[in-house]
Design goal:
The complex is a heterodimer of chains A (about 290) and B (about 260). Chain A is an alpha/beta fold and about 290 residues long. Chain A is built from 9 helices and 12 strands. In chain A, the strands form 3 sheets. Chain A has an 8-stranded parallel barrel, surrounded by 4 helices. A two-stranded antiparallel ribbon of chain A has the order 5-6. Chain B is mainly alpha-helical. Chain B has 2 domains: about 100 residues, no CATH class; about 140 residues, no CATH class. Chain B is about 50% helix and about 10% strand. In chain B, the strands form 2 sheets. Chain B has a 3-stranded antiparallel beta sheet. In chain B, strands 1-5 form a two-stranded antiparallel ribbon. The longest helix of chain B has 21 residues. The relative contact order of chain B is 0.10. Classes of the chains: A alpha/beta (about 290), B mainly alpha (about 260). Chains A and B meet through helix 3, strand 5, strand 6 and helix 4 of A and helix 1 and helix 3 of B.
């Protein structure tokens, strides 16, 4: 199999990209859509066979970002060195322009809990996350981005506002921030926070990527509503408006359209990306700082 | 105040054993308990989807509701151990075989085992096949001592029921073929492998299956030979090599000499 011919130094451009899912592998190769970059879930390409062949072929002319869901940076018991090595192997093959993980956890007592679970915003959790980000960056020999979570619960012992926690991880480890604007929209609604405060607290020089996705709204027994981060619909008007605020502060950054449930035809994702590109071009702040780490 | 580890163990209790008590006591005061259900639903839904993608024929045999119910119990009893879901589901066939509500479908475990083998072959690592020319360097008198490393996609199964016939008929929704299946036709010796065109499932004769099984287990050619008038070991070996079923070879036991 041929090696991809884009050098590792090829950055992810400060434009819109789309999340590449298996359903669209064939369509992407046939249509060769005019999209600046794509992102995949690292865990989906740890084996061999057909998925990896598609990714190799797509990678030849599309920069790829690797987005992991399983490293569990917030695990009290430590991160799995075997998983870290699997990630390194995928990166060695794909030569991604960006690599990212989550401020979350999903491994405890030898179980993988298959979701991005919330952390208490404590000094202990901050230390654990920073230690694991350091470990990851030194093992991979490159900078990673960490994504702010979407959450439905908060803990009684949380003492650090989430936006300060994010900024502190970046400041202590030198990692970048993947600012998921949809997650901010979901969490601020669910916990009664203020989205503008959140965005204003993130250091612009650390923000290396933005995620956009759809969410749904669920009614709870007590009459309140909960926003669910299900990546199953178009980006909402509210999230687009928050996105405008975000790029006005952070400048033009690589922006991803994610869609994981009820995945629509590729064209729908491309339309969403086109809209994001329009907003990037018309953003008042034109300083670009695409992260090529 | 609970430590991070105490919280994570409490959350694990909530997800695996539906016991919200410990984690609920750790939540901020105004948070309602039904918010915890979102996490449990996502956890079960994600893993059920993983099993569903891996065992589509098994699901069609038992129906959607039964499959979901069985999957939920399996997920709670045996959650994934690592964050790489390609590896999740290997114990599901054995779980189904001893799952009391499924005992009336005697062949269910065999079909699931075949589906797991197909799935494993799909995801197996990409390793270049052995270049047959390399064997030319071995002296003829030493060739009997050659042993091989099988391609990681190869799975050899011996099943009591004709799971391959059922699997094909259900996959193709071929009711005619399904109606003609003889469950008592005796054990099936199956070879599952990923070839360039995709995953293949082949039913082998007893000697063919024994010969390939021995080779894949690392026996030398000489030790793997099957004494049968109806089976030509040389022709079979030539076919294995031509189809790229081996990725390495050695002339002493593979555990000490072969590099995969």
């Amino acid at each position: 199999m041929q090696r991809p011919n884009i050098s590792v130094a090829d950055p992810i451009p400060a434009r819109a990209g789309v999340g590449l899912r298996f359903q669209h592998h064939q369509a992407v190769l046939e249509i060769r859509p005019d999209v600046a970059w794509m992102e995949v879930h690292t865990e989906n390409y740890m084996g061999g066979g057909v998925p990896l062949r598609y990714l190799d072929a797509i990678r030849r002319d599309t920069p790829i970002s690797l987005h992991g869901v399983g490293l569990s940076l917030g695990s009290a018991e430590g991160i799995d060195p075997a998983h870290l090595e699997r990630i390194r192997k995928v990166a060695e093959r794909v030569e991604p322009g960006l690599m990212s993980e989550h401020i979350a956890w999903n491994v405890v007592g030898r179980s993988y809990l298959a979701d991005l679970l919330p952390l208490p915003m404590t000094e202990e959790a901050l230390e654990v996350v920073c230690r694991h980000v350091d470990q990851t960056q030194s093992y991979l020999k490159r900078r990673i981005l960490v994504e702010n979570p979407s959450t439905y619960i908060t803990f009684a012992n949380s003492i650090i506002p989430e936006w300060e926690f994010m900024a502190a991880v970046a400041a202590r480890t030198g990692c970048g921030i993947l600012c998921d604007v949809n997650n901010i929209c979901v969490s601020v609604h669910n916990h009664g926070w203020d989205a503008s405060t959140y965005i204003a607290a993130l250091p612009p020089e650390a923000v290396g990527e933005i995620h956009l996705a759809g969410h749904s709204v669920k009614s709870l027994a007590d009459g309140s509503t909960l926003r669910i981060d299900d990546h199953g619909s178009r980006v909402s008007d509210e999230v687009w408006s928050l996105y405008r605020q975000a790029i006005a502060r952070f400048g033009a950054v690589p922006t991803l359209i994610e869609w994981d449930n009820d995945v629509p035809p590729l064209q729908v994702l491309l339309d969403e990306a086109l809209h994001a590109d329009c907003l990037i071009r018309n953003s008042p702040k034109d300083s670009s700082h695409a992260d090529a780490a | 105040m609970p430590t991070l580890l105490e919280m994570q163990k409490a959350m694990q209790e909530s997800l695996l054993n539906r016991d919200n008590q410990a984690v609920y006591a750790m939540l901020a005061g105004h948070v309602s308990a039904d918010r915890l259900d979102i996490y449990r639903n996502t956890f079960v839904h994600t893993l059920t989807k993983t099993l569903r993608l891996c065992f589509p024929v098994t699901e069609r045999l038992v129906g959607e509701d039964f499959f979901e119910g069985a999957a939920q119990i399996f997920i709670e009893e045996r959650p994934p151990r690592v964050a790489w879901l390609d590896l999740y589901g290997g114990e599901f066939p054995e779980f189904l075989s001893s799952f009391p509500p499924a005992t009336s479908i005697a062949y269910l475990g065999d079909v699931a085992e075949l589906e797991w083998a197909v799935n494993s072959a799909l995801h197996a690592a990409d390793i270049a096949s052995l270049d047959v020319a390399a064997l030319g360097a071995i002296e003829v008198e030493d060739q009997g001592q050659i042993s091989f490393v099988p391609h990681p996609s190869i799975r050899l199964l011996r099943l009591d029921y004709p799971a391959d016939v059922i699997w094909r008929a259900v996959s193709d929704a071929d009711d005619d073929a399904l109606g003609k299946i003889n469950l008592g036709c005796g054990p099936r010796n199956l070879l599952v492998e990923r070839l360039s065109a995709g995953v293949e499932v082949e039913c082998l004769s007893e000697p063919a299956w024994c010969f390939l099984s021995r080779l894949c287990a690392g026996s030398s050619i000489e030790a793997a030979l099957v004494d049968s008038s109806e089976f030509d070991c040389s022709a079979a070996l030539a076919e294995h090599l031509a189809l790229g079923r081996f990725v390495g070879f050695g002339s002493v036991p593979p555990s000490t000499a072969i590099e995969g």
